[in-house]
Write a structure and sequence with these properties.
Layout (H helix, E strand, L loop, with lengths): L1 H19 L3 H7 L1 H22 L4 H12 L2 H9 L5 H22 L1 H4 L15 E2 L10 E4 L5 E2 L3
Antiparallel strand pairs: 1-2, 2-3
Helix pairs in contact: 1-3, 2-3, 3-4, 3-6, 4-6, 5-6
């Protein structure tokens, strides 16, 4: 999430400079809604990609993304009602993201309580070549990488 905040934050800053002529500091105060959604996106994208890399499904990534965006909604409503000043919205959003993600993990405790293998990411198929021996052993395949396997009957 930190990498997303830094790398994607720089991209958001440049976008804000191009559109409005000011950097992130002004976006935080003058375009709070845009800054809130940018921050949520900047933290969510790397989190979901890391989850996919670690073997979680797109569904679990979507649930975590929803948990990360969820704090923004009530905070923006409070901002629009004038109950929360603009300079509090972004820090509160970042603080509330953590309990929101913890609730999502507790809801699926079986999913998050054991190690995951990187099975969700597309893995290369084991490429095979014809065995160097006679045609009599045609059921056996020699992998280019990985363990020796036999062909299904």
């Amino acid at each position: 999430m930190l990498v997303g905040m830094v790398v994607l934050g720089m991209a958001f800053r440049q976008l804000h400079v191009a559109l409005f002529g000011t950097g992130f500091d002004d976006a935080w105060h003058e375009h709070t809604e845009l800054a809130v959604f940018a921050m949520a996106f900047n933290k969510t994208l790397p989190m979901v990609l890391l989850m996919r890399y670690r073997g979680h499904s797109w569904e679990r990534g979507g649930e975590m993304a929803a948990a990360m965006f969820l704090p923004a909604v009530p905070l923006l409503v409070l901002l629009w009602l004038g109950l929360v000043p603009a300079h509090w919205v972004l820090p509160l959003q970042m603080v509330l993201m953590l309990p929101s993600m913890i609730v999502a993990m507790l809801y699926r405790v079986d999913e998050y309580s054991h190690p995951h293998l990187a099975t969700a990411v597309a893995t290369p198929r084991i490429m095979t070549q014809a065995p160097a021996t006679s045609a009599a052993s045609s059921r056996e395949q020699v992998p280019i990488f990985g363990r020796r396997r036999t062909a299904p009957s």
